[in-house]
Write a structure and sequence with these properties.
The chain has 491 residues and is of the alpha+beta class. 28% of the residues lie in helices and 35% in strands.
Length: 491
Amino acid sequence: MPNEKIGKIHLETTADYKRPIETKFNFYSTDTQPKIKFMITRNGAPVGLGQHNVDAYVKLIANDGSWVVVDLEVIDALNGVCQLTVPNDFLQHDGYAKGQLYISTDNRDETVTYVEFRFLITQGLIDTIPAVEKLFYIKKYDDLEKVLKAKANNITEFYKQFEQNIQHIEEETQKAINNIEQLHQRKEKELQDSYNTIIQNLQNNKSEYLDEIRVNKEALDTMLVEVRQQLSNSDIITSVQTTNWQKTKIFNDDSTLIKLNSVDFENMNDINSGFYLVENYSNAPLGVSGKVLFYYFKGANNVEIVQLYAIESQENYSRIKNSSGMWNEWKDFYGNFETVASAKRKLEDLKEKMSNQVSQSVKTSNSYTDEKLDEFTKQKFVLFSGSASTKGTVLKLAFPLSQFKYILIKYRDQGGAKVVPAYYSADNKIPITNFNLSDSSDGDPKLFEASLRIVNDNQLQVLHNNSYAIKSATAETDTNAIEIKEILGVM
Protein backbone atom coordinates (compact mmCIF):
# COMPACT_ATOMS: atom_id res chain seq x y z
CA MET A 1 0.00 0.00 0.00
CA PRO A 2 1.40 3.44 -0.87
CA ASN A 3 0.38 5.01 2.47
CA GLU A 4 2.03 2.40 4.71
CA LYS A 5 4.68 3.48 7.16
CA ILE A 6 7.65 1.07 7.04
CA GLY A 7 10.77 1.39 9.16
CA LYS A 8 13.93 -0.68 8.51
CA ILE A 9 16.40 -2.07 11.00
CA HIS A 10 19.60 -4.00 10.28
CA LEU A 11 20.35 -6.69 12.89
CA GLU A 12 23.73 -8.47 12.96
CA THR A 13 23.85 -11.91 14.52
CA THR A 14 26.79 -11.64 16.88
CA ALA A 15 27.82 -12.23 20.45
CA ASP A 16 29.47 -8.79 20.70
CA TYR A 17 27.91 -6.16 22.92
CA LYS A 18 25.58 -3.78 21.09
CA ARG A 19 23.95 -0.67 22.39
CA PRO A 20 20.18 -0.45 22.01
CA ILE A 21 19.27 0.85 18.59
CA GLU A 22 17.68 4.28 18.55
CA THR A 23 15.59 3.98 15.38
CA LYS A 24 14.24 7.57 15.29
CA PHE A 25 10.94 5.98 14.14
CA ASN A 26 7.93 8.05 15.13
CA PHE A 27 4.54 6.38 14.86
CA TYR A 28 1.28 8.16 15.64
CA SER A 29 -1.69 6.85 17.54
CA THR A 30 -3.78 7.41 14.44
CA ASP A 31 -1.51 5.30 12.19
CA THR A 32 -2.93 2.03 10.90
CA GLN A 33 -0.63 -0.98 11.37
CA PRO A 34 2.74 0.61 10.63
CA LYS A 35 5.51 -1.90 9.88
CA ILE A 36 9.16 -2.46 10.72
CA LYS A 37 11.37 -4.57 8.45
CA PHE A 38 14.34 -6.44 9.89
CA MET A 39 17.37 -7.47 7.77
CA ILE A 40 19.07 -10.33 9.60
CA THR A 41 22.78 -10.91 8.80
CA ARG A 42 25.74 -12.86 10.16
CA ASN A 43 29.26 -11.65 9.37
CA GLY A 44 27.69 -9.25 6.90
CA ALA A 45 25.87 -11.98 4.94
CA PRO A 46 22.07 -12.55 5.00
CA VAL A 47 20.76 -15.29 7.28
CA GLY A 48 18.29 -17.63 5.59
CA LEU A 49 14.94 -17.90 7.32
CA GLY A 50 12.99 -21.08 6.62
CA GLN A 51 9.25 -20.62 6.94
CA HIS A 52 8.68 -24.14 8.28
CA ASN A 53 11.52 -24.48 10.78
CA VAL A 54 11.88 -20.89 12.07
CA ASP A 55 9.69 -18.98 14.54
CA ALA A 56 10.35 -15.22 14.64
CA TYR A 57 8.57 -12.92 17.07
CA VAL A 58 9.01 -9.57 18.83
CA LYS A 59 8.11 -8.48 22.33
CA LEU A 60 7.02 -4.79 22.48
CA ILE A 61 6.91 -2.83 25.74
CA ALA A 62 5.12 0.57 25.86
CA ASN A 63 6.18 3.54 27.96
CA ASP A 64 3.45 2.81 30.54
CA GLY A 65 4.60 -0.82 30.93
CA SER A 66 2.00 -2.41 28.65
CA TRP A 67 3.44 -5.18 26.46
CA VAL A 68 2.56 -7.50 23.64
CA VAL A 69 4.24 -10.37 21.73
CA VAL A 70 3.78 -10.25 17.93
CA ASP A 71 4.78 -12.93 15.40
CA LEU A 72 6.90 -11.76 12.45
CA GLU A 73 6.14 -12.37 8.82
CA VAL A 74 9.03 -13.73 6.72
CA ILE A 75 9.17 -11.45 3.63
CA ASP A 76 12.32 -12.75 1.98
CA ALA A 77 13.51 -16.05 3.43
CA LEU A 78 16.60 -16.22 1.26
CA ASN A 79 17.89 -12.75 2.20
CA GLY A 80 16.81 -12.96 5.86
CA VAL A 81 14.10 -10.29 5.71
CA CYS A 82 11.12 -10.42 8.12
CA GLN A 83 8.51 -7.83 9.00
CA LEU A 84 6.72 -6.66 12.17
CA THR A 85 3.22 -5.15 12.01
CA VAL A 86 2.69 -2.92 15.04
CA PRO A 87 -0.82 -3.55 16.46
CA ASN A 88 -3.17 -0.55 16.40
CA ASP A 89 -4.03 -1.11 20.08
CA PHE A 90 -0.34 -0.82 21.01
CA LEU A 91 -0.20 2.62 19.29
CA GLN A 92 -2.67 3.97 21.86
CA HIS A 93 0.16 3.94 24.49
CA ASP A 94 2.16 7.09 23.64
CA GLY A 95 5.76 7.65 24.63
CA TYR A 96 9.01 5.79 23.93
CA ALA A 97 8.51 2.10 23.29
CA LYS A 98 11.13 -0.62 23.06
CA GLY A 99 11.21 -4.04 21.48
CA GLN A 100 13.43 -7.08 21.09
CA LEU A 101 13.45 -9.72 18.35
CA TYR A 102 13.74 -13.49 18.93
CA ILE A 103 14.33 -16.19 16.35
CA SER A 104 13.85 -19.89 17.30
CA THR A 105 14.66 -22.92 15.17
CA ASP A 106 13.44 -26.53 15.43
CA ASN A 107 10.41 -25.74 17.63
CA ARG A 108 12.44 -23.29 19.80
CA ASP A 109 15.12 -25.80 20.74
CA GLU A 110 17.55 -23.02 19.73
CA THR A 111 16.74 -19.31 20.19
CA VAL A 112 18.72 -16.21 19.13
CA THR A 113 17.98 -12.91 20.91
CA TYR A 114 18.85 -9.67 19.15
CA VAL A 115 19.69 -6.22 20.46
CA GLU A 116 16.89 -3.98 21.70
CA PHE A 117 15.50 -1.24 19.51
CA ARG A 118 13.49 1.85 20.44
CA PHE A 119 10.92 4.02 18.70
CA LEU A 120 8.50 6.82 19.63
CA ILE A 121 4.72 6.76 19.68
CA THR A 122 3.13 10.19 19.49
CA GLN A 123 -0.47 11.02 20.07
CA GLY A 124 -2.14 12.33 16.91
CA LEU A 125 -3.55 15.82 17.11
CA ILE A 126 -6.97 14.58 16.23
CA ASP A 127 -6.93 12.45 19.36
CA THR A 128 -6.24 15.55 21.48
CA ILE A 129 -9.47 17.31 20.47
CA PRO A 130 -11.97 17.26 23.41
CA ALA A 131 -15.02 15.08 22.95
CA VAL A 132 -17.37 17.94 23.88
CA GLU A 133 -16.48 19.68 20.64
CA LYS A 134 -18.09 16.76 18.77
CA LEU A 135 -15.24 16.62 16.23
CA PHE A 136 -14.67 12.94 16.77
CA TYR A 137 -16.34 12.18 13.45
CA ILE A 138 -13.51 13.95 11.53
CA LYS A 139 -11.55 10.72 11.14
CA LYS A 140 -13.64 8.01 12.71
CA TYR A 141 -16.86 8.69 10.83
CA ASP A 142 -15.77 7.00 7.63
CA ASP A 143 -14.60 3.95 9.55
CA LEU A 144 -17.78 3.92 11.62
CA GLU A 145 -19.92 4.27 8.52
CA LYS A 146 -18.19 1.35 6.90
CA VAL A 147 -18.63 -0.78 10.02
CA LEU A 148 -22.30 0.08 10.37
CA LYS A 149 -22.99 -0.60 6.71
CA ALA A 150 -21.27 -3.94 7.00
CA LYS A 151 -23.24 -4.80 10.08
CA ALA A 152 -26.50 -3.67 8.39
CA ASN A 153 -25.73 -5.88 5.42
CA ASN A 154 -24.95 -8.76 7.77
CA ILE A 155 -28.22 -8.21 9.64
CA THR A 156 -30.19 -8.07 6.37
CA GLU A 157 -28.54 -11.26 5.16
CA PHE A 158 -29.18 -12.89 8.54
CA TYR A 159 -32.89 -12.09 8.44
CA LYS A 160 -33.17 -13.46 4.92
CA GLN A 161 -31.52 -16.64 6.04
CA PHE A 162 -33.68 -16.64 9.20
CA GLU A 163 -36.89 -16.36 7.14
CA GLN A 164 -35.72 -19.23 4.96
CA ASN A 165 -34.99 -21.29 8.04
CA ILE A 166 -38.40 -20.49 9.50
CA GLN A 167 -40.09 -21.57 6.28
CA HIS A 168 -38.00 -24.77 6.21
CA ILE A 169 -38.88 -25.48 9.84
CA GLU A 170 -42.60 -24.96 9.13
CA GLU A 171 -42.42 -27.34 6.17
CA GLU A 172 -40.56 -29.98 8.16
CA THR A 173 -42.97 -29.55 11.08
CA GLN A 174 -45.97 -30.09 8.82
CA LYS A 175 -44.32 -33.19 7.36
CA ALA A 176 -43.69 -34.51 10.88
CA ILE A 177 -47.32 -33.84 11.89
CA ASN A 178 -48.57 -35.67 8.81
CA ASN A 179 -46.25 -38.61 9.53
CA ILE A 180 -47.41 -38.75 13.15
CA GLU A 181 -51.07 -38.73 12.12
CA GLN A 182 -50.46 -41.51 9.60
CA LEU A 183 -48.49 -43.52 12.17
CA HIS A 184 -51.22 -42.99 14.75
CA GLN A 185 -53.91 -44.21 12.36
CA ARG A 186 -51.83 -47.24 11.37
CA LYS A 187 -50.99 -48.21 14.96
CA GLU A 188 -54.57 -47.67 16.08
CA LYS A 189 -55.76 -50.06 13.39
CA GLU A 190 -53.05 -52.59 14.34
CA LEU A 191 -54.03 -52.42 18.01
CA GLN A 192 -57.73 -52.83 17.18
CA ASP A 193 -57.00 -55.82 14.95
CA SER A 194 -54.78 -57.36 17.66
CA TYR A 195 -57.46 -56.79 20.30
CA ASN A 196 -60.11 -58.41 18.14
CA THR A 197 -57.83 -61.40 17.51
CA ILE A 198 -57.11 -61.85 21.25
CA ILE A 199 -60.82 -61.66 22.15
CA GLN A 200 -61.66 -64.18 19.46
CA ASN A 201 -58.91 -66.56 20.64
CA LEU A 202 -60.07 -66.27 24.26
CA GLN A 203 -63.62 -67.06 23.28
CA ASN A 204 -62.48 -70.00 21.14
CA ASN A 205 -60.26 -71.45 23.86
CA LYS A 206 -62.44 -70.70 26.91
CA SER A 207 -64.04 -74.13 26.97
CA GLU A 208 -60.68 -75.85 26.52
CA TYR A 209 -59.13 -73.83 29.37
CA LEU A 210 -62.06 -74.54 31.69
CA ASP A 211 -61.84 -78.26 31.00
CA GLU A 212 -58.09 -78.24 31.69
CA ILE A 213 -58.59 -76.33 34.95
CA ARG A 214 -61.28 -78.81 36.01
CA VAL A 215 -59.00 -81.76 35.30
CA ASN A 216 -56.09 -80.15 37.20
CA LYS A 217 -58.33 -79.42 40.18
CA GLU A 218 -59.49 -83.03 40.34
CA ALA A 219 -55.84 -84.20 40.18
CA LEU A 220 -54.86 -81.80 42.99
CA ASP A 221 -57.78 -82.99 45.13
CA THR A 222 -56.67 -86.57 44.62
CA MET A 223 -53.06 -85.73 45.50
CA LEU A 224 -54.20 -83.86 48.63
CA VAL A 225 -56.17 -86.87 49.82
CA GLU A 226 -53.16 -89.13 49.23
CA VAL A 227 -50.82 -86.75 51.11
CA ARG A 228 -53.19 -86.57 54.07
CA GLN A 229 -53.45 -90.38 54.09
CA GLN A 230 -49.64 -90.70 54.01
CA LEU A 231 -49.26 -88.20 56.83
CA SER A 232 -51.76 -90.03 58.99
CA ASN A 233 -49.89 -93.34 58.44
CA SER A 234 -46.40 -91.88 59.01
CA ASP A 235 -44.35 -90.68 61.98
CA ILE A 236 -44.46 -87.07 60.79
CA ILE A 237 -45.81 -84.70 63.42
CA THR A 238 -47.92 -81.77 62.24
CA SER A 239 -48.48 -78.43 63.93
CA VAL A 240 -52.09 -79.37 64.60
CA GLN A 241 -50.99 -82.45 66.55
CA THR A 242 -48.66 -80.37 68.76
CA THR A 243 -51.30 -77.78 69.65
CA ASN A 244 -51.73 -79.11 73.21
CA TRP A 245 -48.12 -80.24 73.71
CA GLN A 246 -45.98 -78.78 76.47
CA LYS A 247 -43.64 -76.21 74.92
CA THR A 248 -41.96 -74.73 77.97
CA LYS A 249 -38.37 -75.82 78.72
CA ILE A 250 -37.68 -77.36 82.12
CA PHE A 251 -33.94 -77.77 81.31
CA ASN A 252 -31.51 -76.12 78.92
CA ASP A 253 -31.02 -77.74 75.50
CA ASP A 254 -27.86 -79.49 76.76
CA SER A 255 -29.84 -80.93 79.73
CA THR A 256 -28.14 -78.59 82.25
CA LEU A 257 -30.09 -76.64 84.84
CA ILE A 258 -31.51 -73.25 83.90
CA LYS A 259 -29.49 -70.51 85.68
CA LEU A 260 -31.32 -67.49 87.11
CA ASN A 261 -29.75 -64.17 88.14
CA SER A 262 -31.97 -63.85 91.21
CA VAL A 263 -35.27 -65.12 92.63
CA ASP A 264 -37.71 -64.23 95.40
CA PHE A 265 -39.16 -67.46 96.78
CA GLU A 266 -42.24 -65.52 97.92
CA ASN A 267 -43.03 -64.24 94.42
CA MET A 268 -42.27 -66.48 91.41
CA ASN A 269 -45.06 -65.43 89.06
CA ASP A 270 -42.58 -64.69 86.23
CA ILE A 271 -40.98 -68.17 86.37
CA ASN A 272 -42.20 -71.21 84.44
CA SER A 273 -42.22 -74.72 85.84
CA GLY A 274 -38.72 -76.23 85.64
CA PHE A 275 -35.38 -77.05 87.27
CA TYR A 276 -33.22 -74.03 88.19
CA LEU A 277 -29.87 -73.03 89.68
CA VAL A 278 -29.55 -69.68 91.52
CA GLU A 279 -27.09 -67.97 93.87
CA ASN A 280 -28.84 -64.66 94.65
CA TYR A 281 -32.20 -65.19 96.35
CA SER A 282 -34.49 -64.06 99.16
CA ASN A 283 -37.06 -65.68 101.48
CA ALA A 284 -35.17 -69.01 101.47
CA PRO A 285 -35.14 -71.45 104.43
CA LEU A 286 -33.33 -70.15 107.51
CA GLY A 287 -29.60 -70.90 107.47
CA VAL A 288 -29.39 -71.70 103.74
CA SER A 289 -26.59 -69.95 101.86
CA GLY A 290 -24.59 -70.35 98.65
CA LYS A 291 -25.91 -71.89 95.44
CA VAL A 292 -29.20 -73.78 95.57
CA LEU A 293 -31.01 -76.08 93.15
CA PHE A 294 -34.79 -75.92 93.11
CA TYR A 295 -37.69 -77.41 91.22
CA TYR A 296 -40.68 -75.12 90.73
CA PHE A 297 -44.13 -76.39 89.69
CA LYS A 298 -47.27 -74.42 88.80
CA GLY A 299 -50.44 -76.44 89.20
CA ALA A 300 -54.15 -75.85 88.72
CA ASN A 301 -56.13 -73.41 90.88
CA ASN A 302 -53.00 -71.25 91.48
CA VAL A 303 -51.28 -74.01 93.46
CA GLU A 304 -47.45 -73.72 93.43
CA ILE A 305 -44.81 -76.16 94.76
CA VAL A 306 -41.11 -75.55 95.38
CA GLN A 307 -38.53 -78.20 96.27
CA LEU A 308 -35.12 -76.74 97.20
CA TYR A 309 -31.72 -78.44 97.59
CA ALA A 310 -28.96 -76.48 99.40
CA ILE A 311 -25.65 -77.52 97.81
CA GLU A 312 -23.37 -76.53 100.71
CA SER A 313 -25.42 -78.13 103.50
CA GLN A 314 -26.86 -80.88 101.25
CA GLU A 315 -30.28 -80.40 102.82
CA ASN A 316 -33.68 -80.54 101.07
CA TYR A 317 -36.67 -78.30 101.75
CA SER A 318 -40.12 -77.88 100.26
CA ARG A 319 -43.12 -75.59 100.55
CA ILE A 320 -46.57 -75.23 98.96
CA LYS A 321 -48.70 -72.24 97.98
CA ASN A 322 -52.38 -73.13 98.29
CA SER A 323 -55.25 -71.94 96.09
CA SER A 324 -55.89 -68.99 98.40
CA GLY A 325 -52.46 -67.61 97.53
CA MET A 326 -50.76 -68.27 100.89
CA TRP A 327 -47.34 -69.97 101.20
CA ASN A 328 -46.82 -72.39 104.08
CA GLU A 329 -43.56 -72.60 106.02
CA TRP A 330 -40.46 -74.30 104.63
CA LYS A 331 -40.29 -77.95 105.69
CA ASP A 332 -37.59 -80.57 105.59
CA PHE A 333 -38.35 -82.51 102.44
CA TYR A 334 -37.76 -85.86 104.22
CA GLY A 335 -40.06 -85.02 107.14
CA ASN A 336 -39.09 -87.13 110.17
CA PHE A 337 -36.24 -88.80 108.33
CA GLU A 338 -32.76 -87.91 109.39
CA THR A 339 -31.11 -85.07 107.44
CA VAL A 340 -27.97 -85.55 105.42
CA ALA A 341 -25.91 -83.41 107.81
CA SER A 342 -27.04 -85.47 110.84
CA ALA A 343 -26.42 -88.70 109.01
CA LYS A 344 -22.92 -87.55 108.09
CA ARG A 345 -22.07 -86.89 111.70
CA LYS A 346 -23.23 -90.38 112.73
CA LEU A 347 -21.40 -91.82 109.75
CA GLU A 348 -18.15 -90.30 110.99
CA ASP A 349 -18.68 -91.94 114.39
CA LEU A 350 -19.17 -95.32 112.75
CA LYS A 351 -16.18 -95.04 110.41
CA GLU A 352 -13.56 -95.75 113.04
CA LYS A 353 -15.52 -98.67 114.55
CA MET A 354 -16.09 -100.30 111.19
CA SER A 355 -12.65 -99.60 109.75
CA ASN A 356 -11.00 -102.86 110.89
CA GLN A 357 -14.02 -104.94 110.04
CA VAL A 358 -14.39 -103.38 106.58
CA SER A 359 -10.68 -103.76 105.91
CA GLN A 360 -10.79 -107.47 106.76
CA SER A 361 -13.97 -107.96 104.73
CA VAL A 362 -12.44 -106.23 101.71
CA LYS A 363 -9.37 -108.46 101.86
CA THR A 364 -11.48 -111.58 102.08
CA SER A 365 -13.81 -110.34 99.30
CA ASN A 366 -10.94 -109.37 96.99
CA SER A 367 -9.29 -112.76 97.49
CA TYR A 368 -12.53 -114.56 96.70
CA THR A 369 -13.26 -112.28 93.72
CA ASP A 370 -9.78 -112.76 92.28
CA GLU A 371 -10.10 -116.53 92.55
CA LYS A 372 -13.52 -116.56 90.93
CA LEU A 373 -12.50 -114.06 88.25
CA ASP A 374 -9.39 -116.09 87.45
CA GLU A 375 -11.50 -119.19 87.20
CA PHE A 376 -14.04 -117.37 85.09
CA THR A 377 -11.57 -115.76 82.71
CA LYS A 378 -10.40 -119.17 81.64
CA GLN A 379 -13.70 -119.32 79.66
CA LYS A 380 -13.37 -115.84 78.21
CA PHE A 381 -12.18 -114.49 74.84
CA VAL A 382 -10.36 -111.15 74.52
CA LEU A 383 -12.37 -109.10 72.00
CA PHE A 384 -10.48 -105.83 72.51
CA SER A 385 -7.36 -104.72 74.36
CA GLY A 386 -5.99 -101.18 74.32
CA SER A 387 -7.34 -97.74 75.24
CA ALA A 388 -10.53 -96.01 74.04
CA SER A 389 -12.24 -92.96 75.53
CA THR A 390 -12.67 -90.23 72.88
CA LYS A 391 -16.06 -89.70 71.25
CA GLY A 392 -16.18 -91.33 67.79
CA THR A 393 -13.38 -93.86 68.50
CA VAL A 394 -14.04 -97.21 66.75
CA LEU A 395 -13.13 -100.43 68.63
CA LYS A 396 -12.36 -103.35 66.28
CA LEU A 397 -13.32 -106.71 67.86
CA ALA A 398 -11.25 -109.87 67.46
CA PHE A 399 -14.39 -112.09 67.49
CA PRO A 400 -18.01 -111.47 66.43
CA LEU A 401 -20.30 -110.30 69.25
CA SER A 402 -23.04 -112.71 68.22
CA GLN A 403 -20.94 -115.67 69.47
CA PHE A 404 -21.20 -114.53 73.13
CA LYS A 405 -23.99 -114.35 75.70
CA TYR A 406 -22.63 -111.13 77.18
CA ILE A 407 -19.35 -109.22 77.52
CA LEU A 408 -17.22 -107.93 80.38
CA ILE A 409 -15.85 -104.37 80.05
CA LYS A 410 -12.72 -103.43 82.01
CA TYR A 411 -12.27 -99.67 82.39
CA ARG A 412 -10.62 -97.01 84.53
CA ASP A 413 -11.91 -93.70 85.92
CA GLN A 414 -10.90 -91.37 88.74
CA GLY A 415 -11.86 -94.01 91.28
CA GLY A 416 -9.59 -96.71 89.79
CA ALA A 417 -10.04 -99.87 87.68
CA LYS A 418 -13.46 -101.57 87.41
CA VAL A 419 -15.17 -104.46 85.55
CA VAL A 420 -18.85 -104.42 84.52
CA PRO A 421 -20.90 -107.00 82.60
CA ALA A 422 -22.86 -105.74 79.61
CA TYR A 423 -25.75 -107.13 77.59
CA TYR A 424 -26.90 -106.03 74.16
CA SER A 425 -30.14 -104.07 74.03
CA ALA A 426 -32.52 -103.58 71.14
CA ASP A 427 -31.19 -100.07 70.47
CA ASN A 428 -27.64 -101.45 70.00
CA LYS A 429 -26.22 -99.28 72.82
CA ILE A 430 -24.09 -100.33 75.80
CA PRO A 431 -24.08 -97.79 78.69
CA ILE A 432 -21.25 -97.55 81.26
CA THR A 433 -22.01 -95.44 84.35
CA ASN A 434 -20.18 -94.84 87.64
CA PHE A 435 -20.36 -92.59 90.69
CA ASN A 436 -17.26 -91.28 92.48
CA LEU A 437 -16.37 -89.20 95.55
CA SER A 438 -13.04 -87.40 95.77
CA ASP A 439 -10.36 -89.08 97.89
CA SER A 440 -9.78 -86.02 100.07
CA SER A 441 -13.45 -85.47 100.99
CA ASP A 442 -16.91 -86.72 100.16
CA GLY A 443 -18.17 -83.22 99.27
CA ASP A 444 -17.46 -83.31 95.54
CA PRO A 445 -19.48 -86.21 94.07
CA LYS A 446 -19.44 -86.78 90.31
CA LEU A 447 -21.33 -88.96 87.87
CA PHE A 448 -19.56 -90.49 84.85
CA GLU A 449 -21.27 -91.97 81.85
CA ALA A 450 -19.97 -93.38 78.58
CA SER A 451 -21.90 -95.19 75.86
CA LEU A 452 -20.85 -97.66 73.16
CA ARG A 453 -22.81 -98.21 69.95
CA ILE A 454 -22.79 -101.57 68.17
CA VAL A 455 -21.79 -100.58 64.63
CA ASN A 456 -21.82 -104.18 63.40
CA ASP A 457 -20.87 -107.65 64.68
CA ASN A 458 -17.15 -106.76 64.69
CA GLN A 459 -17.11 -103.04 65.63
CA LEU A 460 -18.10 -100.81 68.56
CA GLN A 461 -17.96 -97.00 68.63
CA VAL A 462 -17.76 -94.49 71.53
CA LEU A 463 -20.95 -92.36 71.37
CA HIS A 464 -20.19 -90.04 74.31
CA ASN A 465 -18.04 -89.80 77.44
CA ASN A 466 -19.48 -87.12 79.78
CA SER A 467 -19.39 -86.08 83.44
CA TYR A 468 -21.77 -84.29 85.82
CA ALA A 469 -20.63 -82.46 88.97
CA ILE A 470 -23.48 -82.80 91.44
CA LYS A 471 -22.36 -80.08 93.85
CA SER A 472 -22.00 -77.36 91.20
CA ALA A 473 -24.78 -78.85 89.04
CA THR A 474 -22.47 -78.56 86.04
CA ALA A 475 -22.64 -80.87 83.02
CA GLU A 476 -19.35 -81.45 81.20
CA THR A 477 -19.31 -83.07 77.76
CA ASP A 478 -16.45 -85.08 76.24
CA THR A 479 -14.45 -85.27 79.50
CA ASN A 480 -13.27 -88.81 78.58
CA ALA A 481 -13.27 -89.75 82.30
CA ILE A 482 -14.01 -93.42 81.50
CA GLU A 483 -11.14 -95.17 79.68
CA ILE A 484 -12.01 -98.60 78.23
CA LYS A 485 -9.01 -100.93 78.57
CA GLU A 486 -10.31 -104.40 77.66
CA ILE A 487 -13.48 -106.20 76.47
CA LEU A 488 -13.98 -109.92 77.17
CA GLY A 489 -16.57 -112.18 75.51
CA VAL A 490 -18.37 -114.76 77.67
CA MET A 491 -20.03 -117.80 76.07
